[in-house]
Amino acid sequence: MQDLLAQIFGISFLAIFIRSFVPLLLTALGGLFSERSGVVNIALDGLIIFGALSGAIITKQIEPALGPLSPWVGWLAGAAVGGLVAWIHALLSIKYRADQVISGTAINLLASGVPPVILAALYGSSTESPKVEYGLPLWGVGELRFSPPVYFAFVLVAVIWYVVYKTPYGLRLRATGEQPGAAASMGVNVRRMRYSAVILSGVLAGTAGVFLSIGNLDSYVRNMSAGMGFISLAALIFGQWKPLGVLGATALFGFLQALSIQLGGTDLLPPTLVSALPFLVTIIALIFTGRSAAPKALGKPFDG
Amino acid sequence: MTYLPDSRPSPVASRIALIVSAVAAAGLVLTPLAVLGRSFDGNAVLLHLSGAALNLTADPQVRLPSSGTTTALGWVTLIFMLATLVGALRRERWFWITGLLGFATALAAVLLLNGVLNAESARIAADTTLRPGAKRTLRNFYGGGGMNLGLFLPMLAGLIAAGAGLSARQVWWDRLNRLRSLLVPTVAIGLAILVGAIVVLLVQPAVNGTGAALSLWGGWLAKTDLVYFVYSTLFAPITRLNPFLDSLKLATPLIFTGLSVAFAFRTGLFNVGAPGQLTMGAIGAMLVGVYAPAGLGWLLLPLSVIAAGIGGALWGGIPGLLKARFGSSEVINTIMLNYIASAIFIFLIGSETFPFLGREYNMPFKAEGFEARSNELQEAARLPTLLQFFNVGGSGATVMSLGIVFGLITLALGRWILGRRKVKNAGVLAFVAALVVGALTWRIGVPVQIAGSQLNASFLIALLCVAGFGTLMWRTATGYALRAVGLSPKAAEYGGISVARNTILAMTFAGMFAGLAGTHYVNGGALDEYRLKGNMPANVGFDGIAVALMGQSTPVGVVAASMLFGTIDTGGIDVDLKLEQINKDIVTVLKALIVLFIAAGGFLSRRVTDPPPPQLLKAVEATGKPDAARLDAPVAKTEQGTPLPNVGLSSENNTREGGK
Questions:
Q1: Is the pTM above the cut of 0.90?
Q2: Does the beta carbon of B357 lie under 8 angstroms from any beta carbon of chain A?
Q3: Is 0.85 exceeded by the ipTM?
Q4: What is the total count of domains within chain A?
Q5: Can you list the domains of chain B with their CATH numbers?
Q6: A165 is in which domain, residue-wise?
Q7: Interchain pair A107, B596: CB under 8 A
Q8: Which residues of B fall within a CB distance of 8 Å from A229?
Q9: Residue A292 lies inside a defined structural domain of this protein
Q10: What would the pLDDT profile of B153-194 be if each residue is shown by its tens digit?
Q11: Alpha carbon of B371 to those of B146, B279, B434: distances in Å?
Q12: Which of B336, B581, B657 has the most A C-beta neighbours within 10 Å, making it the best mutation to test the interface with A?
């Protein structure tokens, strides 16, 4: 038993934990902006995929010209594409008053169709992109070496906490999600707040995707997100739409994901069933989460 | 857009006619009129309105069929289109005539050209000097010819302009108005096709077999032909019998999953869990079909089908229960259950042994061998193919039973006659009569020529589900309660309808429909074997969302949308084969775009898609007071609820506490 515990919870476990934790954290923080402004963002999973795909492709395409600088440009491109796709979701939900859940689902469906089409056109393979020469650099010591988005994510928690609670932008954001009518009467441009928040969520989810494709591995692989976007959304609810709550909730889900990866390598439980563990716990966690903390105007188009 | 009592076409109708006729005229001049022949991989000989033929095939000496009449008719069509344009510009009363004439001449051009191409094929077939291989290539070459954008656009535009012009008359306005609910899906498909065309142009270079570089004009013609080629291949299966039956086979699971999503929509719930429910249904069907005692005989099949329904119902009921009891979002829960179902699926048939607490156990459900699949179903648990099912001929010959046809005729006649005499329960009586007639005439049949279609009897189960959906939703108290919860949970609760109970019920039924799709793959052997197989495409569950939205959550709409999607799925495989850079995922993109544009209401204004009822406008006009706008009961009855409940909103309200 002692051996087994040591086998599961070694230093490598910590590394795996951080690698599963960070994309969830980035995505959930993005979702926090969108949902705090009153726009349901079920498209997060698709946004991760778009970010991962464009990060890998741009890096691959500009490598010959820029060399080691290219993954940084790839990161920017992934974040920008994430923001752009999120803008489509924003346009539909805010301007055209679409049902936000359906519009988000449409983005997710696009994310399952567009990558194979682009990959087949560029590289002739519909499942993965060719490996990039230069991934994002790894910083750290020993086994604990991570690419920059990891450090970026942890800094971001503090920044977002400050932005949401201590700046005028954050106040307007929260007001927009709670009482858009009241916010508008005080001169807040509700639509612009919502656009900016949804696009920001795309930028962050795109960054999570970039971390998956060129920060963690060195190419885009089909269905790379593996449901992370949805788990982040659940973590956002479980964390009661608060930056520190989200940090805790994503840490929990990241821990479970790392645990299921580690347990899969042992003969303790069937690895296929263990891989479903994070999803099962997500359902259970949602049972014990009230919706009372949800932004009051979540999912409602603004008329004013 | 509402009817204005004015004998001239309304400004909006004129503008529509103006735009479409301008596009059609531009299409006639700027795109290829027709294709005089096309090889398998898309290389074509393009005919332009000027009469010039652009040969993009590898063989510069290929014999071209005569095309003089086609071009001449093209010019006549252009004149009619320009006349329509002028008429629409001046809001004349007559432009529907020129529009219709333009449609007719373009149609005549297409028919004439097809005649010429058929004659050419016949000539090749009769030619004895050719080798069989070359013969087939040449016949396929001429068979691949036909109209192109230059004739297709005027046909479409002519019809639209005619409709727009005629809308100035009350009778036609009423007729067109009845089709209004098709507006959003149609516009959404149109926009999706436009965006899809841009994607095609971006990823696929022009098909050019000559090896020589194209001029700017030639390149443009080749590019526009490419768009037409891709879409005509996508929609081709609808025009011929055998590919059509293939597309029905692909449509069958879409009907099930579409019904599943539509059922939940009607109750204001969004079921994203059809893939998981389908998987659990398939597992249920497999467990009963393989392991139930063989002594059950013919009961095995119905039991196995029921097990599929129960498997799905269970997987749909869980999120329903969680939503009703704890208020957790059914959207996230169904997605999570998809992943869990897929893990169970792989666990059962993925490998022969599994570790548990340090020991290896055998997995009894997986068949031996490398492939991920279960053991084979017992003979009695298999669904026949429709060919077997309807075949009443003896050995060898295929004779289709006409029992169903006679039964349907009896049903229609019976309902009409009994309905006119105001007999009680006319529908039920007619149905019984139809059953009797169908059974009596079962042995009567007609011989047909069909090359082994794999369409299986789960298609009939799907149609039964369609009928069941319609009956339950619109003919029973349960359905009334379900729809009431979908339209307004709070009002339903106030009216004594339990929101919690109906939430669970709706998700259970939705899951059952999706689960029954498992019978298509397991009992129906749609994947070429009567087993649960690892390559089962559970993702058709997501297509169910697009199907339900396209079909406006009505049973008939779901069937129509499924058949459309089944068609482009089948055509997508052809496109994949014929063109190098485009794979069949372009179909997935098209479906996603359709969902996107339907979500946006086709970018149409609310006044167009959902106008105030005409009675209301008339009343306001007559009295000049808005008070007069109250609807009388029969009118109010015909005003149906919005087809798309706002699921984003209701996910807040559908909790047991009624959204406290």
A1: no
A2: yes
A3: yes
A4: 1
A5: 11-178+205-239 (no CATH), 242-402+444-554 (1.10.3470)
A6: 17-226
A7: yes
A8: none
A9: no
A10: 989 999 998 888 888 888 888 888 788 888 888 888 899 989
A11: 44, 18, 46
A12: B336
